[in-house]
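Severity: low
Component: inverse-folding endpoint
Summary: output formatting inconsistent between runs
Steps to reproduce: submit the following structure tokens with default settings.
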């Protein structure tokens, strides 16, 4: 079966379908967050419901500022470079179909803890659907708000709220309140960040891996013995493109996927400018590639690969969040990058794995209401309207150009 025909059933309308690691700052399990508790009530633009934050997630702003080790200090205040430095993921085991593997592929054994807000976690949800692993790997989604104790699971009541609800947004089955408890459950001395995605082994009670790029690879290849066509033939990392895929990841990860964070979390003008300029140079490069370099709708023409997944999750968040919240505003996608815009909208509107795993409420509320160092009043901007344009509609300035 050709790659094209293996992907086509995935298209809409068809039948089957402390850091410690060597990095910048330390996170302590300080109890200082909980000593002064304040419950705040937020009103959301797209809903009429009010949402009460979990009490333990809302220390006063002052208290958070005072502590150099708080989780929401994205750059260590004593780091004069002002640069955001992403930590290395800690859990790096592999699900493998090789004999004797500690983590063999098995239906129902593995679970993904994710956030709809998070681009890295979003990658894994897209791959899970593209590979037809819905009945094999379960998933659950944390609340969009990330407080000083990190991601937390929703309550029964929250799971029904307009701004929170979505597929997989459910309380933790074992009754945990925060994702950090999953990490401490496997290692009480854990000192890294409590990141999503987490690939969890339900049988062994272990974290297999918390690095999205590696989880993508496992989902792509290791479950092929358990799935049928057409999903088996979906290959997001085909042998003959591996060198080019890896080369593309290298610049896109640093300058685009992580580049938006390095721009937005920078704490000096110099660090911000350096990173935002590099980000837009990389977007120019992507635009050029998609405008002249491909003979098909995907980054590599007719073949949908990891590159499409990894770039999409950043681009789909770009206009709704990164332009204003991370100050990535030299251009936006919808009016400044026609080829990227077209490529993104094809993925979103034509392939359910992309649209169904994109939740704009979680995306917008998470960044604007969790990063209080960037947006202290937690007011979520209304625009852009809509979050993503219909397939063939342009912003007026673009369509008037003819
Ligand atoms: N390298 C990791 C990065 C994951 C990551 O940074 N996730 C963010 C959400 S977008 C997170 O969970 N952050 C929580 C924290 O840093 O405390 C991956 O690709 O899996």
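Observed output (run 2 of 3):
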């Amino acid at each position: 079966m050709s790659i094209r025909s293996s992907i086509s059933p995935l298209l809409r309308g068809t039948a089957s379908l402390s850091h410690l690691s060597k990095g910048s700052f330390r996170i302590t399990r300080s109890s200082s967050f909980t000593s002064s508790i304040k419950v705040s009530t937020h009103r959301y633009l797209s809903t009429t419901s009010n949402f009460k934050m979990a009490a333990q997630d809302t220390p006063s702003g002052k208290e958070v500022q005072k502590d150099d080790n708080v989780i929401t200090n994205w750059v260590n205040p004593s780091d004069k470079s002002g640069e955001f430095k992403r930590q290395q993921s800690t859990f790096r085991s592999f699900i493998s179909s090789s004999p004797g593997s500690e983590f063999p592929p098995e239906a129902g054994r593995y679970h993904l803890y994710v956030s709809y807000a998070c681009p890295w976690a979003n990658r894994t949800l897209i791959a899970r659907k593209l590979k037809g692993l819905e009945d094999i790997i379960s998933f659950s989604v944390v609340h969009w708000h990330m407080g000083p104790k990190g991601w937390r699971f929703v309550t029964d009541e929250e799971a029904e709220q307009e701004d929170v609800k979505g597929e997989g947004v459910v309380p933790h089955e074992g009754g945990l309140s925060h994702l950090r408890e999953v990490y401490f459950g496997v290692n009480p001395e854990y000192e890294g960040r409590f990141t999503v995605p987490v690939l969890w082994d339900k049988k062994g009670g272990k974290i297999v891996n918390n690095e999205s790029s590696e989880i993508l690879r496992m989902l792509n290849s290791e479950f092929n013995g358990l799935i049928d066509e057409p999903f088996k033939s979906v290959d997001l990392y085909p042998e003959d493109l591996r060198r080019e895929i890896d080369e593309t990841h290298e610049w896109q990860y640093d300058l685009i996927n992580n580049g938006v964070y390095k721009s937005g979390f920078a704490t000096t003008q110099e660090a911000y400018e350096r990173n935002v300029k590099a980000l837009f140079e990389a977007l120019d490069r992507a635009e050029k590639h998609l405008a002249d370099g491909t003979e098909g709708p995907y980054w590599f023409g007719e073949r949908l690969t990891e590159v499409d997944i990894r770039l999409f999750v950043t681009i789909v968040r770009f206009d709704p969040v990164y332009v204003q919240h991370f100050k990535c505003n030299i251009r936006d996608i919808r009016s400044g990058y026609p080829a990227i815009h077209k490529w993104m909208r094809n993925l979103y509107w034509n392939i359910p794995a992309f649209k169904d795993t994109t939740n704009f409420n979680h995306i917008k509320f998470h960044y604007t209401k969790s990063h209080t160092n960037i947006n202290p009043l937690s007011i979520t901007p209304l625009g852009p309207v809509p979050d993503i344009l219909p397939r063939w509609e342009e912003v007026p300035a673009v369509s008037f150009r003819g």
